[in-house]
UniProtKB/TrEMBL annotation:
Membrane-crossing segments per the record: 223-242
Protein name per its UniProtKB record: Carboxyvinyl-carboxyphosphonate phosphorylmutase
UniProt xrefs under SUPFAM superfamilies: Phosphoenolpyruvate/pyruvate domain (SSF51621)
Record's keyword terms, sorted: Membrane, Transmembrane, Transmembrane helix
Keyword rRNA processing: no
Listed GO MF terms: oxo-acid-lyase activity
């Protein structure tokens, strides 16, 4: 069931910063940091689960299982990437129903052709706007709770230009999307133009090394955005840390002098070992030999 706190945050005009999560460790760490929302990144989830490019290879079954596992493992509301809805209108309905039943609080659907490509990468093509409008209407009808939010994304900016992207954003909002996501605007001025044109809550995708400039949260709020997602910041940091420690291990043959790490004790606490130990203590059987 969707967490009503997320819709309430938008209704209260609270600017939301949502870190990208991609596995259960990242989900657990982020869940304890006090964020209002977590973002299940498609790129990171596909990479951590399948080890392949986010290029339409992952299926609905792959993603609903992985995203649902993260959503059930945290208390913070979660928005999850669902690509194109994994097919036509019937697929979109099934995807919305599945994501909502999995405990996710918001679904992101995009207007790319199938197979889709990762945002901020070249070669993305979009379906006709009218087809995406139908997908959004089906999504809105399929949800069982108004607390389950629909994020409608357009990738039209890169191939068709900003004007077409804004036109689609307006159409998607009118069709029933709760949040409009114009992917990969290429300057702050373009982001300001989007903010002036679209009254619906807007999502900014802050990707390190991507096409869109990374702006401070206060600036994003001031120019009309309601939420900023940081899908890549977690898995980029993890990859860099692993490269460093694995490189040291390969060169030195030990893990000495690597500096401070997260700590094994903290990790056992994060994963719930103290509760397991307490359970075992309460239910321990007397030694048969005694």
């Amino acid at each position: 069931m969707a967490n009503p706190a997320l819709r309430q945050a938008f209704e209260q005009k609270k600017f939301i910063v949502a870190p990208g999560i991609f596995d259960m460790i990242s989900a657990k760490v982020a869940d304890g940091m006090g964020f209002d929302c977590l973002y299940g990144t498609g790129f990171g989830t596909v990479a951590s689960h399948l080890g392949v490019a986010d290029a339409g290879i992952a299926t609905y079954a792959d993603m609903v299982a992985r995203m649902g596992q993260m959503a059930r493992g945290v208390k913070t509301p979660m928005i999850a990437d669902a690509d194109t809805g994994y097919g036509g209108l019937l697929n979109v309905r099934h995807t919305v129903m599945g994501y909502e039943a999995a405990g996710i609080s918001g679904i992101q659907l995009e207007d790319q052709e199938t197979p889709k490509k990762c945002g901020h990468t070249p070669g993305r093509r979009v379906i006709p706007a009218e087809e995406m409008v139908l997908k959004i209407k089906v999504a809105a009808e399929a949800r069982t709770s108004p607390d389950f939010l629909i994020v409608a994304r357009t990738d039209a900016r890169t191939t068709l230009g900003l004007e077409e992207a804004i036109r689609r954003g307006l159409m998607f909002g009118d069709a029933g999307a709760d949040i409009v996501f114009i992917e990969s605007p290429e300057s702050e001025e373009e982001m300001r133009a989007i903010g002036r044109a679209i009254a619906k809550p807007l999502l900014a995708n802050m990707v390190e090394g991507g096409r869109t400039p990374i702006l401070p949260a206060e600036t994003l709020k001031q120019i009309g955005y309601a939420i900023a997602i940081y899908p890549a910041v977690g898995f980029l940091a993890v990859a860099a840390a692993l490269e460093r420690v694995y490189g040291h291990l390969k060169q030195q043959g030990d893990s000495i002098a690597l500096g401070e790490s997260y700590g094994f004790k903290r990790m056992t606490e994060l994963m719930g070992f103290p509760e397991v130990w307490e359970f075992e203590k309460r239910w321990a059987q007397p030694d048969a030999a005694e």
